[in-house]
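Entry type: protein chain
Record version: 2
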Amino acid sequence: MFRNGIPAPPFSLSDEAKRLRALEELRADKPLVLLFFRGAFCATSRRDLLAWSDLFERIEWLGAGLVALSVDAPDELGRLKQTLELPFSLLSDADFSVSRTYGIYESDEREAGPQPHGEPGTFVLDRNGCFAFSQIQSGPKGAANANEILLMLLLMQKQNGFYW
């Protein structure tokens, strides 16, 4: 688990359009929400992604960004983004390397979904790329509440992109 205030580990991953995206570019001197989700196969993940989609304009209005990550291949993420009409980028961590770096649990379920797949996690980075919030889950239920994260981003907007 990462402590608040320490820099997030950098990474570069392909998005749903197979473009390489670096954390530094995604963050671009603004707060950033990183959502790790189980994958396109998971109904709970699709529901959660839609909830975040509904808040995306408000997140941008608050001067923050949002990106979601899973171990799905870019083509699968492209289909998911199109099907759900998601306005934010989806990143492919196909080899699980970034997920492991961020402490995301690897599922031990063998009857559901492709293996390996990660369990959910939510991170908020401040404008300097340091952790302001982190939640790692051991299963698909109980994700960080998107509206509570929105309130955190509102506070961060009032404090020039910082949580404290």
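Comment: The first strand starts at residue 12 and ends at 15.
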